[in-house]
Structures are given as C-alpha cells and as structure tokens.
Amino acid sequence: MNDNWSEQPEREPSGDAHEQPTQHLMDAPPPPPPSQASYGQQSVPVQEKKPKRINWPVLGSSVVLAALLGGGAGGLAVNYFGNNGASAGAEIEQSPQLNRTDDVTPTTEAAAVASPSVVTLSVGGDQAQGSGSGVVLDEQGHILTNNHVVTLGGQSAAANVMVQTSDGQVHEAEVVGLDPMSDLAVIKIEAENLTPIEMGSTEDLNVGDQAVAIGAPMGLSGTVTQGIVSTLDRTISVASSAVPEEPETPEEESPFEFGLPEDTEPPTGQGQIHLNVLQSDAAINPGNSGGPLVDHEGRLIGINVAIATRTEGNVGLGFAIPVDYAQRVAQELIENGEATHGMLGVSIVPAGDQNVSSGARVLEVVEDGPAAGANLETDDVIVGIDDKSVTDPGSLSATVSEYPADSEVEMTVVRDGEEFTETLQLGSME
C-alpha cells in the first residue's frame, strides 16, 4: 500500500547510548534514527559444543531507562478460600518460582507457568552488542523475539546470538528468519527439554485484564512485572531496521525511536513501520524486548516491542505485538525464512472534513496496483478493513500489513457522506 503523506521536518536523533535497542518518547521527540538491515533469512555459524552453565553477562555499561515494551496479561483463574490465595496447580508445584504452594496469587501462578518458556538473548556484532528476551515456540528449539534485538537495531544482519534458557544453560543460536515489517524474528537452538509457551488469543481479552511481563530488563533474566491491559488496539509508528525502498507506510514524524547500543553510530537509511499493538501498564525496561506478554493463565498474548516515556524510564506505557499476528509471522519465518505482508496500492493522507472526521483519504490509486480494479476513487475515505476500524493512515497501513500477501479483504469506504463496502484482493509488499 503506497501510503504516503506529508513528512514532518527531521530532527537529529539522540546520541544517548543504550544497552540494547529501545524505543522511547521524549519531550521534544526526535525522528527515528536511520538503520541498515535486510529481509529474509540470515544464518549465523554455529560452533558445536555442549551447553554449559555460565554467569549470564550484562552487555554494556550504561542503560537509558527506556525499552521496547514488555507487557503481559497474567493471573491464572483460580478459586480463593477466605482471604488467602489459592493452592498452586500440581503441574507447577515444583517451580523454583514458588516458596509457598498453598497461598498462590494469580500473578504468581501465571508467571510460574510462563517463565520456563522465556529465554534471555545476548547479541554481538562487529561493533555493537546488546541483549533482549524471547519465547520458546516448540520443542525443536524455535524462539520468537524482536527483529531489532537480533539485528542490533539494524546494525548487523549476521550478529552472533547466544541464548540462555530458564534452566541456566547457554546455547548458540542460528537465525531462521527476520521480518523488519513486523519487527519479529525467529532463531533456533539445539537443546533438550524445552518448554514451549502456550498460545493465547487477543480475541478474548478485555481492557482491565491483568497483565504480566516476563523478560530480562537490564540483563536481569527472569524478571516479572504486573499490570493491566490498557488498550486492545493502539497504532504506533516505530523505527524499523529495514523498510522497502518505496515504503508502504505513511511517512510521519514519530515519537518512538530505536535506541542503539553504547558507543555505536546510528546506521543510515532507517525508516518507519506502523504496528497495531496491545497496550499495558506493566513495568518495561531495556532488555524486555522480544519477551512475552501473557494472560491470566500464562498464555502468550503479545511480544513486547516498545515503550513510550518522557523520563527515559518506565511510565506505564508499554506496547506488544498481538499474538495472532506474531504467530502467523513466526510460522511463515519457520517454513519459508521470510514472511509476507499485504499491500493495498494507494497513496493516502489523514481524513477530516464535513463528511468524515477519521480514516484515510485516498490521494491516488496506484496504476496496476491491487486497488486499481476496485471501486475506489480519489477523495474516498477508507474507514474500515473487515471488522477493524481505520482511524488514520497509520492504522490503515498497520492493518493491511497484518494480512498475508494475496488475502481477500472487505474495505469500508465513505464517498460524499455515503458508506459502502468493496471486496478486493491485496497484493504483496516486497
């Protein structure tokens, strides 16, 4: 979807050093720093050696207190007796997370269920290093994390990735696939007795549901924080380690940016992507990137990706890529080494006149594009895709890119104050 709109004047990105890639909101927000990264599969040579227990290094010597969000809904549905907590389920009674098994809070039980599936990542490139988190997808060793963690914010397409599992073992990982358009990546380790995380769904979530984030903020693995789900469908604009040569997302000044590891220069050419995300107020800090957001039964509902802050620290504004989208991308990365994304093929700007106050106004329908054969004209306002509302160009771009290439969608359009629907097949963003 060639969705282009007026670009705001650029400001110089901050030179502050970070332990790992982060995103934060400042009082005078800078534009996203530039970056270099590539699509598709990237492999890292793996030296064969037995896993060993070591003291997990905290990479970098200073950290600005801001990070890609780590938020999760937590709290297992349990029965209470009087004023005491419930007893732990038999399947987690041996968990090292529990000292009292007869008085367990919902947050405790959710964290105990999910924690064995959470890993800590240490990433090193030629001139940069960083850390982050991830979740185990299957017994074959596939791990889901953020693209910006694996590529060090776009600085390295073939960084060396080490993974520490919940039992303290350390393994070298290979990169299975990178997807900068969703900021997701899949890596793989050779290990036994892995505990895959249980998949949840965002369809059953309510605002106010308990949220639990698990990850390694500032290198402190196994950290658990608790909050609530604040918003189910927030659109944010973040810096991307790679975007198409002709971006499919509207260009706009964004309050979110990727911070870079200490003593590194921002790469050039970094663009923006738009994401529809869950918002929670669980405390998130650098190192939570790529870690899970889990529901009240310890099931995955999101992958932590960003925070917004005016103090360079957690202020309760964290964002996670919804599990349904993350699961689809992860599956394609595992099967094909790359993921596909839908494209609409229009140039758009924000709507706002006497007929409609929100949506994406069509400036141009790209010739021979996916929308060219549809009943779509200049000045039409797109206000919905299937059952999702479109509030502005960013939300349209984020929604369309969530679909696999060649998907069929129903588009809701307003023309001269009259609303109608149009069914079309999306193209492929490459």
TrEMBL record:
Composition bias, Basic and acidic residues: 8-21
Stored InterPro entries: Chloro_Bact_Ser_Proteases, PDZ, PDZ_sf, Peptidase_S1_PA, Peptidase_S1_PA_chymotrypsin, Peptidase_S1C
Superkingdom, natural source: Bacteria
UniProt keyword Cell inner membrane present: no
Name this protein carries in UniProt: PDZ domain-containing protein
Organismal lineage: Bacteria, Bacillati, Actinomycetota, Actinomycetes, Micrococcales
SUPFAM superfamilies: PDZ domain-like (SSF50156), Trypsin-like serine proteases (SSF50494)
Keywords annotated in UniProt: Hydrolase, Protease
Native source organism of the sequence: Yaniella flava
Pfam families: PDZ_2, Trypsin_2
CDD domains: cpPDZ_Deg_HtrA-like
Bias-annotated ranges (Polar residues): 36-45
Signal peptide bounds: none
